[in-house]
Amino acid sequence: MSVIQQPAYVLHTRPYKETSLQVTLLMPQQGKRFATFRGVRQASKAARQKQAWLQPFQPLQVAWQASPSNQDWLMPSHLEAYGQVHWLSGEANLCGLYLNELLYNSLPLAQPCETLFVVYIETLQALSNQAKMDKISPATLNRAQQAWWLRRFEWYLLQELGYPLHTWLTEQTYGFVAGAAIDPQRPYRLRPQTLPELADHQAEVWDLPGAALLALLDEQAGSAGQIDLRLLAALKRVFRAHLDLFLAGRPLGSRQLLQTFLTTAKDTSS
């Protein structure tokens, strides 16, 4: 039997029996997969080391033997840390937990997601860098940048889930889409299962300013926090409406925690 080895991140863990953990992993070629790590909750030094690795935001290398018996549930034979952990704290940590919870609840099992895996790493790195900047730059700027990185991640995730907005915008950029270029002054309607189209006068939750669509293409401006806060709010509203369809009514605890954190921070500063 051949051995499969993949880079991975932990999305979720739960205790299993007396000494093991059941873990949900994110991998580029294997996508979201369930795995059981045996003996990692024992008292030995090696077990404690492995349990310490099986934490969110720690890059891993995982290996297992490919066989018909473990196609649905992996039984890894090798685990090691692979690179530096992305240190997130405070608000940035809640943002990272939001990414994990979103993937855990929306991403189909065993669907390859190589581009999304790269975007996930980029987002964690950006959140980690901004966590270090909290003490030396305005909180409002950091929050705008964090909001941008979350919206960018949601944009790529929606593409992975089947809503082709990223492909459509890319084709627009290269002139492959028939019709006029995106008008920043006009609203576009992004209904589920349909490509963007100009909105009529009756506003809907799916409506997004053309300027927000163009902002998605200008990633440099977004990462620098130069996107209008109103456009970020519009992207959040529309992307959340789309993602909620894939979540099928499952609430995300990280959303509530983040909202509570922001409310508390606002009350403290006022």
Automatic annotation (TrEMBL):
Role noted for this protein: Involved in DNA repair and RecF pathway recombination.
Pfam families: RecO_C (PF02565), RecO_N (PF11967)
Protein family (similarity comment): Belongs to the RecO family.
Highest taxon of source: Bacteria
Claim: Repeat is one of the keywords in the record: no
GO cellular component: bacterial nucleoid
Annotated keywords: DNA damage, DNA recombination, DNA repair
GO annotation, biological process: DNA recombination; double-strand break repair
Source organism per UniProt: Thiomicrospira cyclica (strain DSM 14477 / JCM 11371 / ALM1) (Thioalkalimicrobium cyclicum)
PANTHER family reported in the protein's UniProt record: DNA REPAIR PROTEIN RECO
Protein's recorded name: DNA repair protein RecO
The organism's taxonomic lineage, starting at the top: Bacteria, Pseudomonadati, Pseudomonadota, Gammaproteobacteria, Thiotrichales
